[in-house]
Amino acid sequence: MNHDSYSDDYIRGILNAVKVIAMVGASPVDVRPSYFAFKYLVQRGYDMVPVNPGHVGKSLLGRPFVASLSDIGRPLDMIDIFRSSAHIMPVVDEALTLTPLPKVIWMQLGARDDAAAAKAEAAGVKVVMNRCPKIEYGRLSSEISWMGVNSRTISAKRAPIPTQGMRLSLNRTSLGGAATTAADRAAKNKTESS
Length: 194
What we know:
Elements: H1 8-17, E1 20-24, H2 33-43, E2 47-51, E3 59-60, E4 63-64, E5 78-81, H3 88-95, E6 104-107, H4 114-122, E7 126-128, H5 133-140, E8 153-154, E9 173-174, H6 181-193
Parallel strand pairs: 1-2, 1-5, 5-6, 6-7
Antiparallel strand pairs: 3-4, 8-9
C-alpha cells in the first residue's frame, strides 16, 4: 500500500468500523496533543484505553492507564500510536502478539515506520501513518468546518455541533483540492528531492 496518501474511503472505512481504541503514549497532562486526541475520540463515542507505563495508577477521563497492550485483556479494534518513529516497531511487535489481532495500527502525525507497517500488513492488519484520527474524523464529518477550515467535503447540511458521545456521519462527499502555487511548488520540490 502507498502510505504517502490515503483515500478518504480508506480512512472513512476505518473510522466507521472501529469501536475500541488503545492509545499508546496517552498523557493525562491536559496540554499534550495525545490528551486532546484522546478526549475528542471519547467524546465521539469511541471506547478509549490509555496505555502508558509511566502513568499506571492514574486515569484519563475516568479510564485507568495500563502499562502495555497485553494488560488490556479484551479485543482491540485499533491501536493509535502516539510515540516517535523510533518507538513504533516494539509497539507493533506487541500488537501482533494479541489475540485477536487489532484491525488497524494508526501512527500519529510525524510518526512513520515503513518496516513496522509492512510487518503489520503482512499479518493482515490495516495501517495508517503520519495522520491523526481526530483531524481525519473532524475533516470527514465536516465538523472541522465549524472552525473555518476547508475540509474538502461537500454536503448541503452543515455538520451538527456534537454532544457527548455523538458520532457524526463520515459519509460526506470528498473533493480533491484545487491546484495552488504552494501545492505545485511542494510537489515539484518532492519530485526533485527524490
